[in-house]
Recover the amino acids of this structure.
C-alpha cells in the first residue's frame, strides 16, 4: 500500500482516531493525583471557607463603630477576647468592642469586619484604632470559594497544582483518575548497540531511540518500557504478540522504510489489522500502524528524527486521548526568516528555532540528524495545500514545550 | 520590619539571589536523565553516523552510471551483493553494478548513491532502474550529525528527549547531572485538618497547601516531603531546625501574616538570618524568608493563592537555579479585556485567563480563593511603576505552563 498511495496526514489521523481507546479509571491518593486526569466529577462536601473568615491578623469589630476613626481622630475599643488560628470565640461583640483575631479564624458573632493590626495600638485591655473599616473588609465570606454540594470540577479535567488544592478543599483525600497507559517500545534493528565509548563495529549504530522515545512517552503522561528484537519475522512477531497482551500500546522502531516487505509491517499484517503504511508527511513518511490483539501498534521509522516526528503526529495525541485529554497543536503565527520550499500534497514539520516574533528553520534536515532537533524548539508546519513560504511570510509554528503533558 | 517598609519585588529577589545555592552533581544512567540538567559537557566519542549510511531501502550504485535512466529509458544493473541492516558488504561496486542495501547500512566501496526500491524492478540477478540519482542522494554522510571529539552539549543544558538521543549517540550510557533539591514543606496552622468528607469542627479548615505546594515543587524539578507543626514557637523551631539539617530547601506555610510577632518569622529570626519580611506584591505581601543552617527557608502565607503566588515569585526561580537552570518569566503581550486598577509601588500578579490575543482577568481575587487559580491559565503582571491598565491596553502576560520545569 505504501507504493500505491500515501495517506494524507488527515486520512492517517482519522484512521487512527477510529481505533482510539480510553483507559479505565483507578482511585489514587490525592498526593499522587498531580498531572492525572479526573475520571469523576468533583462535588464539594464543604463550604470554603466554611465560615466567615478573617483575611488578616488584627481586631474583629463592628465596622459602623469605626466610622470616622483616623490618625488625627483615633477611636478606642474594649478588647473582650483573643482568638488564635483554629479557635472560635464564644463571645458576641457589642458596641465599641473588639476581639483579637488571627488570619483564618472565624469572625465572632456581632462583628462584620477586621481592622489590620498595623492600624491599631494596644494599651492594656483597650485598642486604639487610627483608621476606619467598611463592612466586610478583611473578611473572606463563608462559601466564597466553593459552595457545599456544588460540582466544582468535571470529569476529564487535567489536575494541575491548583486543581489539587481545590479538590483537597472539597474534602477528597483520594480521587478517581484515568490509568496511565503502559507502552512497550520494541526496538528492532540488528545494527543497533547500546551507548558505548568504545569503537563501534563496522555497520553498527548506537540505539538512541530507546531513550528519546521513552522520554516522549513520559512527556505524554504514559509509562514506557523498552525491549529489543532482531529483524527476523519470528522474533518480531513474538515480541509484538507478547507486548500486545501485556501493554496498552506498542511502539516499534525500525523496519518500516519502504514496503510491506519490511518485517515489522509484515508481522502486523499477519497477526492483526494494518490501518495504514506510508503517510505523506516529511519527515516521517515511513510510518505504519495497525491493531493487534485489540491493541494499537505504532510502527515508527528507525531514523531518530523521523521517529520523533511520527510520535508527535500520531502517538502523542493517541496517548493523551487514552487518558481523557484532548490534544491539538497549539499553533502560533511567526514571521519566517528564511524561504521554505515544500511540496503540494505533503505536510511538512520543519525543525525550527522560534523566538517571540520570528521563526528560523534549521537547514540541515536529514531525518537522522538528531542535532537538528536539539537546535530546534518548535516545528513550522506546512499544510499539504501549501507549496512553501517566502522569507517574511507568516507561518504556523508549534512549540515543543506546548506539546508536553 | 514588615511594618516599617516593604521590600519591592526586585529588592526581595535580589536579597534571595545573594544566597542562591547550587546543588552538587551526581551520575545517573541515561534512562534517568530526562528533564535533568547537565553538570558536565558532552564530547562525542563517535562520528554520527559512523559511516556513510543509506537513508533508504534500495540499491547502492555509482550515481554516474544511472544518469539518463527514466521510465521510458530504463537502465539495467547487475546485483553483486545484498546487505541487510547491521551488515557491511566486502564487495566493491564496479560500473553498472548494484548492491541491495537496507536503510542504515554502510554504503559499499565504490558506490556514492542509493536509488530507492520504488524506482527499481528486480529480475533475477539484475535490477532495472527507471530513474537516475545524483551523487550523495539517499546517503547520510559520515559525521553529518556529530563529529567525533567535538563538544556537542555544554554544562547546564536541560535534557529534553532530543538531547537524550544526542547524548546516547555520543556514546554515554550515564551522565553527570545536578542533583534534585529535596524540599521540606512544613505546614503550620492549628486550624488545619486533612481532607475529609465529614463535617468540619468549628474554625477548622482543610489543608490544601500541602498538595498544591508539593505539586509546585515537583513542577520545579525538585522533590517534596510534607510535615506539620503546631503554631508554637518550640514546635516550629524544632521542625525548621531539623528540616534545615536534612533538606536542601525548607518551605513553611502559615504564620507570616503581619509582623515579627508571628511564630514562623520569630523562629527564623532567632535561629538564623532573616533576609526579608513583607514584600510589596499582591497577592503574597505576607512573605518572609531567611537562612537557617546555611539553608534557605521560604515562609509562605497560609492563604492558598498567596502561597502559590509567593512560590511563583520566589521559590520557583530559586529551585530552578539550584539545578543549574535559569528562570525568567516568559512574558507575552495580550490585549486586556477589562480595566485593571493597581497601585504605584506594588507589583500585581493578577490571575487571568488568556487566549491567543486577549487576557481577561478573574474578578474574584481574594487571596484564599483557589477557584480563581483554577479558572486562570496565566498572570497579568503589573509593574510597580504602573498604576494599572484600561480596557484594550496591551498587558504583560505569563502563562502558567511556561513556568513548568
Amino acid at each position: 500500500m505504501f507504493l500505491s498511495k500515501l495517506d494524507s496526514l488527515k486520512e492517517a489521523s482519522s484512521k487512527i482516531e477510529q481505533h482510539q481507546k480510553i483507559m479505565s479509571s483507578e482511585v489514587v491518593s490525592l498526593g499522587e493525583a498531580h498531572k492525572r486526569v479526573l475520571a469523576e466529577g468533583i462535588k464539594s462536601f464543604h463550604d470554603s471557607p466554611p465560615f466567615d473568615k478573617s483575611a488578616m491578623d488584627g481586631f474583629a469589630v463592628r465596622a459602623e463603630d469605626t466610622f470616622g476613626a483616623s490618625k488625627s481622630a483615633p477611636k478606642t475599643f474594649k478588647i473582650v477576647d483573643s482568638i488564635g488560628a483554629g479557635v472560635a470565640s464564644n463571645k458576641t461583640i457589642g458596641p465599641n468592642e473588639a476581639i483579637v483575631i488571627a488570619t483564618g479564624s472565624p469572625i465572632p458573632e456581632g462583628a462584620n469586619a477586621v481592622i489590620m493590626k498595623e492600624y491599631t495600638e494596644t494599651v492594656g485591655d483597650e485598642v486604639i484604632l487610627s483608621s476606619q473599616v467598611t463592612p466586610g473588609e478583611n473578611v473572606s465570606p463563608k462559601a466564597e470559594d466553593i459552595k457545599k454540594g456544588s460540582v466544582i470540577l468535571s470529569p476529564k479535567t487535567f489536575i494541575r497544582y491548583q486543581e489539587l488544592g481545590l479538590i483537597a478543599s472539597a474534602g477528597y483525600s483520594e480521587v478517581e483518575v484515568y490509568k496511565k497507559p503502559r507502552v512497550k517500545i520494541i526496538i528492532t534493528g540488528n545494527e543497533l548497540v547500546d551507548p558505548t565509548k568504545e569503537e563501534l563495529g563496522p555497520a553498527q549504530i548506537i540505539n538512541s531511540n530507546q531513550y528519546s522515545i521513552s522520554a516522549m512517552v513520559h512527556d505524554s503522561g504514559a509509562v514506557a518500557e523498552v525491549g529489543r528484537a532482531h529483524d527476523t519475522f519470528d522474533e518480531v512477531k513474538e515480541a509484538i504478540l507478547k507486548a500486545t497482551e501485556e501493554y496498552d500500546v506498542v511502539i516499534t522502531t525500525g523496519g518500516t522504510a519502504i514496503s510491506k516487505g519490511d518485517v515489522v509491517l509484515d508481522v502486523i499484517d499477519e497477526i492483526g489489522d494494518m490501518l495504514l503504511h506510508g503517510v505523506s508527511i516529511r519527515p516521517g513518511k515511513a510510518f505504519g500502524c495497525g491493531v493487534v490483539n485489540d491493541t494499537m501498534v505504532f510502527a515508527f521509522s528507525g531514523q531518530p528524527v523521523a521517529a520523533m516526528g511520527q510520535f508527535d503526529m500520531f502517538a502523542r495525541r493517541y496517548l493523551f486521548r487514552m487518558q481523557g485529554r484532548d490534544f491539538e497543536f497549539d499553533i502560533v503565527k511567526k514571521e519566517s526568516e528564511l524561504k521554505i520550499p515544500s511540496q503540494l500534497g505533503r505536510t511538512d514539520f520543519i525543525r525550527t528555532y522560534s523566538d517571540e516574533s520570528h521563526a528560523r528553520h534549521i537547514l540541515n534536515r536529514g531525518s537522522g540528524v538528531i542535532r537538528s532537533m536539539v537546535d530546534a524548539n518548535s516545528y513550522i508546519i506546512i499544510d499539504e495545500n501549501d507549496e512553501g513560504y517566502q522569507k517574511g511570510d507568516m507561518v504556523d509554528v508549534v512549540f515543543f514545550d506546548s506539546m508536553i503533558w
